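Q&A log
Question type: sequence-to-structure
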Amino acid sequence: MKYLAICEDDLLFRFMRRVASKRGEALFLVQDAEAAKRIKRGGGSSRSGDLGREATYKKTRLKQVEQAILFIRNPELWEQVYLLLRRLHPEVPLLSLSSEGEVAADRKDPLLRELPLEDIFQELCAPSLLDTLNRQRVGKIRSLFREKDKIHILLQHDPDPDGIGGALALRELLGRKRATTPIVTFGGVTRPENLAMIRLLDIQIERITYEDLHQDGARLALVDVQPPYFNRALGQVDLVVDHHPRRAPFSARYTDLRTQYGATATIFTEYLQAANVEPSQRLATALLYGIKSDTLFLKRGSHYADLQAFTFLYPFANRAMITRMERPALPRADLEALGRALSRLQLDNGVAVIHMGEIKREDVIPQMAEFCLQIEGVEWAVVSGLCGDRVVISVRNVGYVRSAGDIMKRLFDAIGSAGGHRSMAKAVVPLERFKEHFGEVSEKVIREAMVSLIRQREQELRGSTPAERT
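Response status: OK
Response body:
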């Protein structure tokens, strides 16, 4: 692959000298002639010239470049170079490196990726440090439990592939079997693809009551979920491993929260690597599917660590089985529910809102929210429904810095349970409390509350710095 690194000086070359000097296909185009000489003396390939002029790019064979890297701290010069490259080579992928507060303007350019310098350190320099830290974490987790302890691995009410894969990995790390370390939930698995996963991988998830949680002195580990999610005291919690934002203060003997990661399965994959545990095909398949489903195949809210974990797991996993999980038979009742919901769609300046009314299965709500994002012009999807005595609201958006979780918490956390990520979030509110607060449950009420706050948040983001957006 041929790279073109466009820089004001030779700082980037000095940072990646070892790689750049070994790869003749990496050409450094710099503003300063002396910097170009220093790059050449260091074994790199370089040219110099006015980065804002078209003539400077004539000898770079720009049409043959497969990846351009921009390391330009001057915003005005960055803008000049960006527009020039887009005119000379519209199809070239661009990677813009930036310091905090200097991230390029928000653009709808699918070929432009932005990477803050602090992430570059993590991607290029920190793996060995992280591996050491993960070994310490694995040692701490193992020390929490005695050999004779029974351990309940608790997942959210409707467990998803990320939590299920993480639970299997925790059991493997602890060297445990199902009998002494069952995977438990207060609810049950409902989504067709998740049911297909536990059937194909022969995974047992037991339904449990709050009263049985610590029966016979059982220890408690939470995976892909945090204690405040349950809105009820859980007793002593020994371990919490999760990638969701912290919902509220809680107590646990050991906690590993990595909100920058796209999946909890990524954390457990790092644990396995640090402990030199080669995953079985079954475990690798579960973890890979967990990462894939929670990040929409690394498109939504993913981190470089998710990509590394995915790459590690891929050779061990059964990809054909994952395909079967992703395309399960969809019950006719679900199709009919989705069809009725579409007829109720309201579109308000890029925000799709649907209230599905009474539904039997909660999982059709996020399914419909995901589907709505495929509608032309839709940037936000807000789908709600009544499940028994609860109002369930699912939100999705197409961007990474749009604060879906923050909006849901601001609207609903005081009367129910709400939270999530920047691009996906959920709220569950008792029906009576919703009516007390909003008067009624209807598409109109939800649309007015959500759209108003979405617009307010969008205005706040437009007036904020790039660092504040994240």
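Response note: The chain has 18 helices and 18 strands.
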